């Protein structure tokens, strides 16, 4: 059956979407057969085939993953769940964060919702300094070590916002089940953590450079499994369609070769620098893509709102914000991103598909902001150790025109630290939004981004991709399928300070 998002995208165009989907599905089946020997675990119910629906109450899973904020940074003053410790009505740091000169840095309410440029840092090295073996006392020091030119702003890492600043988020977290132990998947930046979301592993990635994203994990991604079994999915984004298709025009191999060449091209031609250091289009872009996969499953954000309004969302929707405008990454105004998230959540809640929907609102990682709960040990996804580009290809240090790129790696020192993925990253805000959500419920079950993989695998009886998602817990304790849905009538939530205008979406897609 043709997926709803494909019907929307190809409407009034001379494209036989059904034939394209059949081609893609056949390719995916062959790919999954090759990947099967690398899967870490079999399907949960061996008496039922892969791809069968085992959770019929939920027809639509929507994942809204925003950028770069810790639980305490957004929800520490919520007075629900596990936020700040309070003393004389003010939050206190339980871990004695100090600068290298011994000066103590206190928690502080940030006076503006507009963030500072490139600070704090959530790089691999900065995150491990902040963690400091579980002492959680290295947040200001991480700036002094990794960003010495910004050491005067080291106290910004201890900042937070309140309900006054983020009224919609606090209302959401006070209404629906709140997860107080949802950790990012590793002590590192955006790209590795988002890779965990779609593949159960970072596959050795420890930085945010597109030139390092040329590999494909042996077990593939959750998208491979969904496509092979004819389960509809979409990764909605806000990038021009021509650009997304052009990057995968030569298939997965061509995409991979192009990314390997980026560091060298950027050394000779500076115009390529932004592509080598961090710009990406949408979450599925973190592994090289097939052209059909991009065409069939990467529709624009405007189509998400259309599908939500008509009840035609696919089985799995991954909603990406515009990473340069309203993702909440610095130096953006966090209230702009809150307005976008509110629009996404309310469009789902008030759409005809609400009665059978589960939406998960969360963040990819902590953004370098303080959190008071130490990340616990985690199951290593595989035996792949973390490496950066110069470590992977040491011979590039002998290439004269590559000096600028290497200097950036060495100057930032952002990739120093351990090389294993056997510990979670810092806590992030996470709320489960569904008509089946339990009222007045807070869960302290340990989750990470592979818990979403576990949910998808459990619903459609799919195998585990890696040891991490095999060990993960699906976030189902917050839902009640035995009683009448508590939120069948959507609750009234506070309005965001800056409502989002759909006119901001790229009309050229």
Describe this entry's structure for a reader.
- This protein has 509 residues and is α/β, with parallel strands linked by helices.
- The chain is built from 18 helices and 11 strands.
- It has a domain at 4-31 and 65-73 and 161-199 and 219-254 and 280-504: Alkaline Phosphatase, subunit A.
- 32% of the residues lie in helices and 8% in strands.
- The longest helix has 19 residues, at 17-35.
Write a brief structural summary.
The protein has 509 residues and is of the alpha/beta class.
| Sheet with most strands: strand arrangement | 7-8-1-9-10
The beta-strand count equals 11
Helix share of residues?
25-40%
- Mean pLDDT rating: 88
CATH architecture annotation name of the domain at 4-31 and 65-73 and 161-199 and 219-254 and 280-504: 3-Layer(aba) Sandwich
Shape: globular
Radius of gyration: 22 Å
Which residues sit in consecutive blocks of at least 5 with pLDDT less than 50? 1-10
Number of helices: 18
Topology as H/E string?
HHEHEEEHHEHEHHEHHHHHEHEHHEEHH
Q: Beta-strand percentage?
A: 5-15%
Largest sheet: 5 strands, mixed
The name CATH uses for the topology of the domain at 4-31 and 65-73 and 161-199 and 219-254 and 280-504 is: Alkaline Phosphatase, subunit A
Report the structural category: alpha/beta
N-end to C-end Cα span:
25 Å
Identify the CATH class of the domain at 4-31 and 65-73 and 161-199 and 219-254 and 280-504: Alpha Beta
């Amino acid at each position: 059956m043709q997926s709803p998002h494909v019907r929307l995208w190809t409407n009034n165009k001379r494209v036989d979407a059904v034939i394209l989907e059949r081609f893609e599905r056949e390719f995916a089946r062959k790919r999954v057969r090759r990947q099967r020997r690398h899967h870490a675990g079999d399907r949960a119910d061996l008496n039922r085939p892969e791809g069968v629906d085992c959770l019929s109450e939920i027809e639509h899973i929507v994942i809204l993953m925003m950028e770069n904020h810790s639980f305490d940074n957004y929800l520490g003053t919520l007075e629900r769940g596990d936020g700040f410790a309070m003393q004389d009505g003010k939050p206190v740091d339980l871990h004695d964060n100090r600068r290298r000169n011994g000066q103590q840095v206190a928690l502080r309410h940030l006076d503006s919702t507009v963030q500072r440029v490139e600070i704090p840092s959530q790089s691999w090295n900065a995150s491990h300094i902040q963690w400091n073996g579980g002492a959680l006392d290295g947040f200001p020091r991480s700036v002094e070590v990794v960003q010495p030119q910004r050491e005067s702003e080291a106290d910004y890492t201890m900042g937070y916002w309140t309900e006054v600043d983020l009224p919609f988020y606090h209302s959401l977290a006070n209404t629906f089940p709140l997860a107080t132990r949802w950790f990012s998947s590793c002590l590192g930046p955006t790209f590795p953590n988002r890779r965990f979301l779609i593949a159960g592993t970072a596959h050795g990635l420890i930085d945010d450079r597109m030139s390092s994203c040329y590999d494909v994990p042996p077990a593939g991604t959750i998208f491979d499994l969904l496509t092979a079994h004819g389960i509809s999915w979409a990764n909605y984004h806000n990038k021009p369609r021509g650009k997304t298709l052009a990057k995968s025009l030569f298939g997965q191999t061509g995409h991979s070769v192009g990314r390997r060449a980026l560091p060298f091209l950027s050394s000779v031609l500076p115009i390529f620098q932004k592509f080598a250091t961090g710009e990406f289009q949408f979450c599925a872009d973190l592994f090289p893509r097939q052209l059909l996969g991009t065409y069939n499953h990467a529709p624009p954000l405007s189509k998400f709102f259309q599908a939500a309004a008509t009840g035609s969302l696919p089985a799995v929707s991954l909603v990406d914000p515009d990473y340069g405008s309203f993702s909440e990454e610095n130096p953006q105004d966090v209230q702009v991103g809150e307005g976008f998230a509110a629009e996404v959540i309310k469009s789902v809640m008030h759409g005809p598909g609400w009665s059978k929907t589960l939406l998960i609102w969360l963040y990819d990682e902590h953004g370098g902001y303080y959190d008071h709960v130490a990340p616990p040990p985690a199951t290593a996804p595989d035996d792949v150790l973390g490496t950066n580009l110069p470590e992977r290809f040491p011979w590039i240090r002998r290439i004269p025109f590559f000096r600028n790129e290497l200097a950036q790696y060495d100057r930032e020192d952002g990739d120093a630290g351990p090389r294993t993925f056997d510990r979670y990253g810092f806590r992030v805000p996470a709320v489960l939004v569904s008509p089946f959500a339990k009222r007045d419920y807070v869960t302290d079950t340990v989750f990470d981004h592979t818990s979403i993989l576990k949910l998808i695998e459990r619903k459609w009886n799919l195998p585990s991709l890696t040891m991490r998602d095999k060990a993960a817990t699906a976030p189902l304790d917050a839902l009640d399928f035995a009683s009448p849905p508590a939120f069948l009538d959507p609750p009234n939530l506070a309005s965001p300070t800056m409502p989002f205008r759909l006119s901001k979406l790229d009309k050229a897609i």
